[in-house]
Amino acid sequence: MSKTTLGVIIGNRDFFPDVLVSEGRREILAVLDARGIDSILLETDATKLGAVETWDDAKKCAAFFKANQDRIDGILVVLPNFGDEKGIADTIKLSGLHVPILVQAYPDDLEQFMVERRRDAFCGKISVCNNLTQYGYPYSLTQFHTVTPTEESFKADLAKFVGVCRVVKGLKSARLGAVGARPGAFNTVRFSEKLLQAYGISVTTVDFSEIIGLANKLRDDDVRVTHRLDEIREYARTEQVPSPALVKIAKLGIVLDDWMAANDLNATALQCWSSIQRNFGINVCTLMSMMSNQLLPSACETDITGVASMYALQLATGSPSALVDWNNNYGREPDKCVLFHCGNWAKSFIPEIKMGYADILATTLGQENTYGAVAGRVPGGPMSFARITTDDTAGKIRAYIGDGAFTDDPLNTFGSRAVVHVPQLQKLLQHICKNGYEHHVAMNASHSAAILAEAFETYLGWETYHHQA
After folding, report:
1. Which of 79, 78, 6 is nearest to 39 (CA)?
2. What order do you get walking across the sheet with 267-270 strand by strand?
3. Alpha-carbon distance 435 to 272, whole Å?
4. Burial, 395: exposed, middle or buried (Cβ in 10 Å; 0-12, 13-18, 19+)?
5. If we measure between CA atoms, which residue out of 336, 420, 430, 323 comes closest to residue 378?
6. What does each C-alpha distance from 467 to 54, 143, 183 come to in angstroms?
7. Counting Cβ atoms within 10 Å, is residue 307 exposed (0-12), middle (13-18) or buried (19+)?
8. What CA–CA distance (Å, rounded) separates 105 from 139?
9. Could you give all domains of the chain from N- to C-terminal order, each with its CATH number?
10. What is the 3-state secondary structure (H, E, C) of the chain?
């Protein structure tokens, strides 16, 4: 994941003590630096104390931001005192930036509640937010209205905000690849390219016959094929897979890599059945697993909005995601269920990963044509889920998100699998069904729903259901 850079605006009002601004500047920069966050802000000699108060200050700060606009992922507004709400709003307007904004305000100390140390940032923050609203800028708030940057709650606020910046920036420029048509029986994965494009998400398509044709032209002894075979064998146990199938998987992986690189793609959705089995004689799951593990998420059944959901979770956390089916009840426990797919989850989810054939597809397509699926069980730990969908009839994008947990409850079955606990699961399933969502959902080994909620609702304007107990 690339390093996050924040444009920092330090607000000031000149009849408050200068020392508060100087102290606040040093403190916030130390906190950002400790967390590996780059900052762009005025030097102390560019304006009084390097802060923003007047129209002239706003012009200088905006010009500096504009000169660095390709680097700035978000804006942090720091209020060591009341600040000048108009100067802050003018800075953002003049900069031309449309990035997430976090507003922080310092608390007053009742032990130092005199003219020499009084801040009034409690009040100033309300005025700043009022002006941002008037100017039409969405913004984020800290958990507590006033907070010192060194407090743990602000560090959590900052971590969340950085995740929001990554999600917004990443989705607004996402390039997704659709390899092959959706399986004919899967109306559920239909989507609108035009609605996605309206938010900056581009889709590049290719017919699977082109990929297969190029793979067939590669020689078995090609050095790239040999190298890819080594990578596959290192990635998963392959002793149950015939050598010819492994060679085909290696060739297909090379062609997919080349196509993704040529089109600068961030993620892919593949037609994983049944053309690839009938025309090339393998399952593509292992390659999808490897791509997802390398932070190039890949989704089943040409589910483009599914892989967009995977990518959003990955942007929020910096860790791999997987696409799963809400697949089975777990006995009579209403808040637990089984997540499943034939077998393409990233190795980070299933440490004891092994390759074999796809048990279900093999019943109709033959074992010999379905080698390449991976299998394993997800161990207990945190879990987040997300689903983005294009509502073509209403002309908008909708989503649902939430947090749960992987459990270690007994599960005797095959494929890529997990047992999860989601508080009030039945309420969530009612929402999914009543609102016509897909049976696929993206998952990530984290608790990151709050990041997606802020990114989707505040900055992308998507109708979002945040499932909570």
Report:
1. 6
2. 202-206, 175-179, 267-270, 298-299
3. 27
4. exposed
5. 420
6. 44, 19, 30
7. buried
8. 14
9. 5-152 (3.40.50), 175-467 (3.20.14)
10. CCCCEEEEEEECCCCCCHHHHHHHHHHHHHHHHHCCCEEECCCCCCCHHHCECCHHHHHHHHHHHHHCCCCCCEEEEEECCCCCHHHHHHHHHHHCCCCCEEEEECCCCHHHCCCCCCCCHHHHHHHHHHHHHHHCCCCEECCCCCCCCCCHHHHHHHHHHHHHHHHHHHHHCCEEEEECCCCCCCHHHCCCHHHHHHCCCEEEEECHHHHHHHHHCCCCCCHHHHHHHHHHHHHCECCCCCHHHHHHHHHHHHHHHHHHHHCCCCEEEECCCCHHHHHHCCCCHHHHHHHHHCCCCEECCCCHHHHHHHHHHHHHHCCCEEEEEEEEECCCCCCEEEEEECCCCCCCCCCCCEEEECHHHHHHHCHHHCEEEEEEECCCEEEEEEEEEEECCCCEEEEEEEEEEEECCCCCCCCEEEEEECCCHHHHHHHHHHCCCCCEEEEECCCCHHHHHHHHHHHCCCEEEEECC
* Tens digit of pLDDT at every position of the chain (469 positions): 689 999 999 999 988 888 999 999 999 999 999 999 999 999 999 999 999 999 999 999 999 999 999 999 999 999 999 999 999 999 999 999 999 999 999 999 988 887 778 899 999 999 999 999 999 999 999 999 999 999 999 999 999 999 999 999 999 999 999 999 999 889 999 999 999 999 999 999 999 999 999 999 999 999 999 999 999 999 999 999 999 999 999 999 999 999 999 999 999 999 999 999 999 999 999 999 999 999 999 999 999 999 999 999 999 999 999 999 999 999 999 999 999 998 999 999 999 999 999 999 999 999 999 999 999 999 999 999 999 999 999 999 999 999 999 999 999 999 999 999 999 999 999 999 999 999 999 999 999 999 999 999 999 999 999 999 8
Q: Is the peptide bond before 274 cis (omega within 30 degrees of 0)?
A: yes
Asked if 442 and 313 touch (Cβ cutoff 8 Å), the reply is yes
Between the alpha carbon of residue 26 and those of residues 64, 135, 238, 325, the distances in Å are 20, 29, 55, 49
Dist. CA 454–CA 260, nearest whole Å: 30
pTM of this structure: 0.97
Residue 427 backbone phi and psi in degrees, to 5: -65, -40
